[in-house]
Amino acid sequence: MSTRLCELLGIKYPVIQGGMAWVATAELAAAVSNGGGLGLIAAGGAPAEAVREQIQKCRTMTDKPFGVNVMLMSPFADEVMRVILEEKPAVVATGAGNPAKYILALKEAGIKICPVIASVAMAKRMEKSGADAVIAEGTEAGGHIGELTTMVLVPQVVDAVSIPVVAAGGFADKRGMIAAMALGADGIQVGTRFICSDECIAHENYKQAVIKAKDRDAVVTGRSTGAPVRALKNKLTREYQRLEKEGAPAEEIEQLGVGGLRRAFMDGDTETGSLMAGQSAAMVTKIEPCADIIKSYFEDTAEILKTIADKMEVK
């Protein structure tokens, strides 16, 4: 399958790997790119030189296009962007903020810019600022989220902008991919499914927590602070919910999460670690190589399309 996204980014399949903090390392990004998608290294809250090391490491593992996801709320965002302008990965995706002040420099460096957006207004603003594509992320996604669902956000963004739109949030298999294309998207962003890949270096406990997740296990905390996050429910999320219910100060609630993702990713702490994952976690049942995961979204789709056609046939 070739779409405008494939042409824009020079990739075989219209799949972007989500820029999951801690999870999206050089190993995962390279494996996704080698599998025909676009891998992303997550800058997260890492200092600039750590991001440089990841970019350089990724280059030793793939000769395919890859990118960096920059969390704009990071105190190191400016320094990370300077490193990116020096290292010149193929793509930059951004989250948690407006990347407008960086776009001109990125484009002059030949770097494609694909901001993550959660509203039509932001999509329009990004197109006007010169973004090459937008990633429309619904509330089903893991990590930091917006309020609109993927199903309603994506078609509205597609109608509002002329640049390619990537649908994100809730895509665990080929059925979701077909639905995204039906909504008008040029590709999908996949995050949670890639946690359970051979090449992801997350702790095995984290991967198994995703595989064991049920349909209602991916819950949202932090709405009272204005920074909602979706993660698998555990002791940490229950404590978040208790503090929010009691009206605790935002600073106390935010402090609770410090180091949580590291504990889950590095230590395999499934009780007090932040097991960030989307609602699609309940659809993930096994650990596979990234290349096989990507192909699974596009192989044997004819039967699904035939079923759709049969259901729509006028009797």
Question: Can you offer a commentary on this structure?
Answer:
It is a single chain. The protein is of the alpha/beta class. Helices cover 43% and strands 15% of the residues. It has 15 helices and eleven strands. The chain has helices at residues 4-9, 26-34, 48-59, 77-87, 100-108, 120-129, 150-160, 174-182, 192-195, 204-212, 235-245, 250-256, 260-267, 290-296, 302-312, and strands at 15-17, 39-42, 66-71, 91-95, 112-117, 134-137, 143-144, 165-168, 187-190, 218-221, 229-232. The strands form two sheets. It has an eight-stranded parallel β-sheet. It has a three-stranded antiparallel β-sheet with strand order 7-11-10, with helices on one face. Helix 2 packs parallel to helix 3 (48-59) and helix 3 (48-59) runs parallel beside helix 4. The mean pLDDT is 94.
